[in-house]
Amino acid sequence: MNIITARTKLVEKDIKWGEAYTEKTQFLKDQFEDIIGPGSYFRFEGKDSQSGDEYYCILGPAGIHKPRAKFFAGVRKLPATFSAGGKYFDSLDTAATYARETWGIPTPKSLIPYTGAHLFDIAKKVEKWKKEKESSGQDVDEPKED
User: Fold this and answer.
1) Residue span of the structural domain in which 98 resides
2) Could you tell me the maximum CA-CA distance found in the chain, to the nearest angstrom?
3) Minimal CB count within 10 Å: which of 21, 37, 62, 103?
4) Domains in the chain, number
């Protein structure tokens, strides 16, 4: 007889989550917070105390080159070679609620309930931001992850 058990959901595991940024995600945080405002992009890392498995979670703008950008909540086990998998939302606070209920991610105190209206023309705003940074001598090339 084969016994099949369901996997434990991340929210049910003993994972201590904390904000943590790589060079690339710090670049994105700085970019989005300059363009949209503070509290618009977050990255968390957490470690399961029982298995030792590590995960990361992203909360922030996504699909900025699509006709209608959204906010994203996604998670992935580390080490990761692919982007986080998750869902798209019309507001950042809804994305954060989903992340808290699904994976146990704490809602950041600095989170602002931005909506899709804040993402209007975001691709053009990113290009403008890059040009302004470039003209002031700053590096605007998004760092590559290892």
Assistant:
1) 11-132
2) 68
3) 37
4) 1
Compute the residue count for the chain: 146
Nearest to 40 by CA among 72, 75, 88, 84: 72
Structural element, H or E, at residue 77: strand 70-78
The reply to whether 138 falls in a domain is no
Q: What secondary structure letter does DSSP report for 144?
A: P
CA nearest to 38, candidates 65, 19, 60, 21: 60
d(CA 47, CA 72): 21
Is 57 a domain residue?
yes
Binned at pLDDT 50, 70 and 90, residue 136 comes out as confident
Question: How does pLDDT run across 52-63, given as a tens digit for each residue?
Answer: 999 999 999 999
pTM: 0.89
Would 21 be classed as within a structural domain?
yes
